[in-house]
## 1
Amino acid sequence: MQASPAGRALEIQVSHRLSFWLRELIRPSQLDPRIKIFLLDDRSAAALQSTDLALADWASVFTALDDRRPSRIFVDKLFDKPFTGAELASFREASRSWTTPIGVISFASTQAIALRTEMQLDRPEFAFPAPALLPGPISKLYGAGPELASAFAIIGHAMYSGDGFVPALVPMAPEKAVPHLGLLTATSLAIRGGELFADQTKVPRDREGRLQVDFGPSELYLKRAFPILPLVQVARAKQALPVVDPGDYVLILPAMYTGNTDWRETPFGSMPGGFILAALIDDVLRGDWLTPIEDGGVGIVVFGVLATFLAEALTTTGIWIMVAGFALGIPFLALSCFVGVGWVVPWILPTAVVPLVSAIVLRRRMSDAQREQQRLAAELETANLVQTSFFPIRAPNARVMAIAGEVLPATECGGDWWGHFSPAPGKDAVIIADATGHGVSAALVTAMAFAASETLDAAAKTWGVHTLTPNAILTFFDRAMSAMTGKKGTMTCFVCILDAGNRVMSYASAGHNPPLLVPRAADDARIGKRRHAFLTLNSAGGSLIGMGSGAHFETQEVELRAGDRLVLYTDGLIENRGGPKGQPWGKARLYRSIDHHRDLPYQEYRAKILAEAADYFGSTPPDDDVTLVILELAEVGPQALAEPEKPDF
């Protein structure tokens, strides 16, 4: 993976550039002072009226330089033009006196080039007796013709792959390879034990046999560069050359004029190809090479496994902290290795794998959470369907009364419940309860209340238990609930028993909101001088159901008349918040609504009260469940029981 084209491109375009620029910021590059560069630039080309030197000028220049006794003279030129006659003879004659090794470039190709003569491979710098350790041969080499090649002591290639690397050796034939001209700065170049050594210093290479050039910015080489024109003029005049000192390394770049410069991409951007040769000469002189660390994807695997292990053990916040730590830590370590010891450590993909692995873990967690949410939603939907079955589906004796009730849970499962049953012939019990809290736990409490109610109803019908009172019902509920929940599930509750034949209703409360008795006529004598046209059925004391305290629930009675309505509700109706200031709807608004809409039919009456509450709540999420039950008496007295109607399903 690390050696893939995409991975290599990322390392070259991002990490290599960043590494070189950061090092340049911390420790500016220094070029060996022995390197002297001469350029055939625009000024020189204009003065010489040529974009190349004549062979006689080249001989004069080499002679003038040789007089200064430099260590090496390198020319970024093929010298592949055919030369004949006196000019060639004069050049060859001059070369016999040169003691400084002069090196020129050659060009390697896998295919024969028409009208070009291949170079002979019998030169000593091409001999490498370890062909098995090199890539397959290229075979074709072109450069200086046989009439000039013998004048040059050194010939090497100047190939550059464009990604910061150069081939150290280009294999040509068995035991033959052409080294890069820059490597021939060394006095000895050899392969020992599969490793390349320049002047006894190991030259690190990658798996493809390439070495990474340690570049500096273009300005570094331009500061050490001189136009070639003064050099030519001094050579023609056979004068001393003051710029070059004994032991220097001279590099001549004869293609630095406009339109002919060979620009190449480097970590510092585009620069003339000749500067790559200058950088490599500097690398050999310093003996301080960059070492490419090729892990073959090991770093990706290691950091991927480590990130997976940590991500599985951390919380979501911890994962983001880990990603940030790796995103800063891995590049920091890699850049520190580059700046400190010259190790080129790939860090783009190892760094990228950490957030990738983390994203996979987080996505899986989200998927698991979504599946869990879906499972819980399905269970809650089932629980809601079950809870819905707890509410009455049978209507009471229609001759006696009509009931309209509605429960609006705050969540999928609510803690409100209401129901009715007949504890004795001619009597109807109505119950409303509000479990503490809401949600699943509260719904379980209401399920127990429903079960207790059904138990009493069955007992009344099966064994003829006709002496139930509101106090007895609440006491039974309290004991049953405390036994089933261990006193951990409590609720408020109101129970009333309507005895229509005797025109009386008995009731008791266990901490529940007092119901309201609304007479048909607003001027009913039972109301008296009260502010609102209804009676509040307050009941003394009464602890919560489920406490198992053995409390007595006081039973009270109130006179009933035809047309009376009983309004029962839970505290969510008056305590849920809304409006511009987030205030509860409150009893005052409930009482006004009850008074204002008292003339509506009982079902519309209930709907109108709930609609006004909903308008007030608006989009504010409810804090508690809301239940509203409207009970309306049709007839009272003995005639109400004369002909009981069949249940209305």
## 2
Amino acid sequence: MMDMVLRVCILVTTYNDPESISDLIKNLVLETPFPLLVIDDGSESPLESRLYSFDVRNAIESGRVRLVRNQKRRGRAKCFQTALKDLAAEGFTHILTVENSLPSTVNEIKKLIEEVKRNPWDLLIGSRMKPESLGEKAGRSFWRQLLRYLSGQGINDPLSSYRVYPIYPLQMSRFFGFGREFEMEILARALWRGISIREIPLEIQTSSPKLKWNRARVLDALRVTLMNSALVIRSLVKNHRTSKDIAVATGIGIMIGCTPFTGIQTIMAFLVALLARLNVVAVGAGSLISIPPFTTLLTLASIYIGGQWLGVPLTQDPVLPHFDQWLKGSLVVGAALGVFVSVLILAMGRLADRFKCFRARIENRYDQWLRALVGRFGVRAGYFMAGLMAPFSYLGRVSERRSLVQFYGMVRPEFGFFRRHWRIWKHLYRRDQIHIDFMALKSGLKLKADSDWLDYPEQGRLLLGARFGAWKLAPELSGVDAFNGFIPHYQTSNFQIYQSLKLGQAVGLFCDRPDSDRIELIPFFGRLAPFDLTPFRVAVASNCPVIFLFGLKTSRGQYRFFAQSARRYRFANDLPHELQLYAWAEQFVRTLEDFVGRYPEEWQNFYPFWSSIPKNPAGGVLIPPEIRFLEELPIPDEFASGFQAPSAPRSEVTHSTPSH
């Protein structure tokens, strides 16, 4: 059985701690099989000059241990983010971190590594033994409750450095922590991104270093306080955004804004949102009801209701004789206005939900009308209508626009804000043009296409493509005989694919959006992305030629299809099948990367391609049936090196000769 291959790298960051770090690196080299990335974060004495161990020196020369030194101290978050980017570009899938001040044993590391096989998309944290001192117990309880407040999930040991980070779902995140506050920040941000966190009990005692209060300690405490405050504010702004949460928070804010405590109502609103975990923006917006000219009206209404309805007498205070009437009347006025506005917000939320249900029906009606328009007046009329609808398309497709922001940030990182969004506007318009051309073909209209296709009439053939360019128009315009288009793997079975290939048909399969449990994480524009290995397994089993096929829109009503020379894949005996499949898929990824780099506006994957955890057809998280680590595979020495992914022998990929 062919497994998914994971690559783990141990990350060690240090600052002015050469003695304990040198012992730690030596132990990790001797007790673990994984590569090490050691970052010296601007230490006064370079770490490399303190590594005297013969085993460590050999590991550095062989490439298993890599030393990186920062000229200035950048902080733990910057070091981790740099390591995340570099390791993703090299094909690593997970980062393992350990405690620098504690002796790491191979048994504890094995516990974390074995759990990765069962949950490759989760962030794993090793829960150390309970502390003995009262101060350490109180500290751990505080951090646990803070994380529960931020995300709703409590972690027994949130400051443990024994962790395994999945690179793929975290690689697009940004972190700002400088010191120990980074440990809490990354847990909160991971939970906000929907990444599950699992705790693994470890038989390691919590370290208890002696605290020496100096200038550095004071700065660390200040940074921790500021980071925690920022995380709390972010959680109050970004979370609790359902219509019910917004309605409750706005109603409470209105009640606070109607009180006579003018000048401190905003502070009161923030404190109430903090204590009750309400959306701070909604509470603050509700408290602004007391701005002019509503202040006078609310004051008069509160005094009138307090005096006439509630019968509150005047006070003896010569300055504010109506204060009691104002205070008690404001509770009635605030409650009535708060309930009214809350009900109004709930009604608007239900209308928005109903509009989402009707949106698909409206878009279907619009497609029918647009198909009739194209069939009667041609593609020019369709392009004209798409141009008129372009502003609504850009503003209405929020999720697609956000995914394209991520896409152009990867493919065109040099673009500024306005240039990037201008390209997104054109990108969505190009997508609509291709869709209109597809309608034109279904209506019987003719389109022009050039193709360098060379057919293989005597046998079946596999066409590998992606959601890129004119993949919908490939059956009619690519020039391929007996080709019914690209199909997702979940809509068919391997048996049906084999039967079609035996009949001499062309079968089109996608590689870019995994819909089976045979996937690999392969670097794509410097970041990991999941790709499907099923087409290559089918190619080996059927012994059919494989052609990479891509179609591009060149101008109005004209297309160009590129078909690379056919390949036949066979397994070599001197290398694991998993690595050969990985290398073949990487060939496709490099080809796709070349086309996407030259024609980015043809990209058709409108979802966060570099951060969305793959889902199965049922909607659950996709877990491969078998997972192994690269170090567990029988790799010959000539193919194995620390930071380089092994590749399959080129001799096992043969090119077929087509008939003209």
## 3
Amino acid sequence: MKKIIFLSLFCYGIINLISVQLFAQQKVIVRGKVIDSKDKSTVIGASVFETDKDGRTVSGTQTDIDGNYALRVSDMTNKISVSYLGYVTYRVNIDNRTEINVILKANESALKEVVVTAGRTVNNGTGLNIEKRNSTAATITIDAKDLQELPAVSIDQALQGRMAGVDIGTTSGDPGAPMSIRIRGTSSINGSANPLIVLDGLPFDTEVPSDFNFGTADENGYAQLLNIAPTDISEITVLKDAASTAVWGSRAANGVLIINTKRGIIGKPQLTYNFKGSVSKQPKSIPLLNGNQYATLIPEEVSNGDGNPLDIQSNKEFSFDPYDPYWFYNYSNNTDWINAITQTGYIQDHNVSMTGGGEKARYYASLGYTNQQGTTVGTDLKRLSAKINLDYNVSSRIRFRTDITFTHLDNNQNFNGDIRGVAYNKIPNMAIYEFDFYGNQSPNYLSPASNVQGGFSFDVDKNKAEGTYNPVALALQAVNKQIGNRVLPHFYLQYDIVPALLLSTFDVQFDINNNKQNTFLPQIATGRPNTETVVNRGSDSDGESFGVTTKLNFVLTPKLKNEKNTLQGLLSLQTNDSRYLSYNVSTSNTASSLLNDPSDPSRTINSDLSLRASQGENRSVGALLQAQYSLLDKYIINSAIRVDGNSRFGPANRYAAFPSLSVRWRVSGENFMKKYDFIDDL
């Protein structure tokens, strides 16, 4: 009997709990009326919102012509917020009530004459926000709306042809191929012609130490800008003039790219999915001779040169003797080498993002996947990216922000060399696959050690294939694979020391970057004898880098007696510590072209074949003092001086100062321009 009573009470409790939860989940309509506290008149068009405990807006409506409202609320424990221009915002707990009448009190301060001006601000990345109309710097800005429709996998591709004075070029259109960005031409005092990238206020390193790839890092570059997904970018600003770039010191000798990523917004969670896809094809190549035409014109060319016919005994590629089936079948073809290494390329880019938050906390999170196949056989790129941006207001004076970015890259490229250039020049009467002495086609590639066009050669210093080879075999069998993982945790703290007068910010960013590259040059593509060290030559390179960047800012914005005069000041202290460690192994002469890993039995007897390791560290410090003064909203002057110290320079040249001065004259503010009403700002 006791068990039955206990089970009955338990079931009754569960039913009540479920009913309470269902009741809480049901939306209830709360009605009411909004009136003025003085004359009791109705307030038409007042905004009525349901807000949760974090201050986030859940739902909303407006009062009608009689001041009445009806709001469907999702939780009876939330609050109702009523606001209208010229009145104090009214907030009250719902407390399970279905009727709430509101009396709004007039905001006395709002009744005074107030002139509100709003404008876009620009920031050179150092932390000093300046109204765009008062900016003395030469800048160009592109918003996310201008980038979201472009099928670009990296920001350098997205910027092509969209900014005056910014030249972006590349030597290859293959996926993951590095691109060069030139702002104001080429001028370098730090050994690099690329601009400085500033990501969310801190420098983003795009330079790869040469030891990572032992001589080819400048060519491959690991495409570091691929680590920034275009879908996460809110805007990109380019600093073009010398005065605006001087605030970043020696690293900004070639210009500065300021990149800001998206952040959370107040409101309900918004889930967004974006897909961008495209198909690419190589343009029609220049007209080339086919095998028959080539075999006819070459002997004529030789005969026209000295009057003697071509010696077909020494050049059997043009003998066409059916009784010599090996040479006849291997060199009696119409091979389109360009078409043989060309495929249809495509890009598919998937991105899922979520944003939302309340008055206390906001968030933005995204997950992206990009898959690109190049138009050259053997080239592709896969990228997985994840990003989380969090903003939290600890109090009215303390704000905290954290950004975490992770990127994984898997990039396959052709072995170093001009594979398309070789394909354009390859004799078209030559077969791709070898025919045996009986005229039967084999699965082996036709890769002679030398023929009428010459032979294969290898540049050890550049790790580059030169001369002639079988481009199809190189595209399909050679290896040039790069895998990268990069994590960027960034933490930001802002404290208002004296509200509206002096604030301080502190940034710290960690950069963990791991890269791995495997290359292999198979003998079946070059045809060289097994005794040479270019046969089945492989390498394995591993690079690890770790960097810590900090920035401490003090921003002063005093209120001057004359409202038309403004003053802003900035003191910024910056440090950077970067360390890297790299390993490399190069071997050759494995037993087969299928054994493409340096760990397979092979040899390292030459000076260019060895096991090597290296490490390095560099540090830099910088101090920036910047101020901008505006007189009568017409005469604006911006001055700054930065002192840099870098361990990469010698002791005698380790420190340097970079002063800058720029001015702006607002001609439209002069009295003699007032008669020209059609000019707003000049």
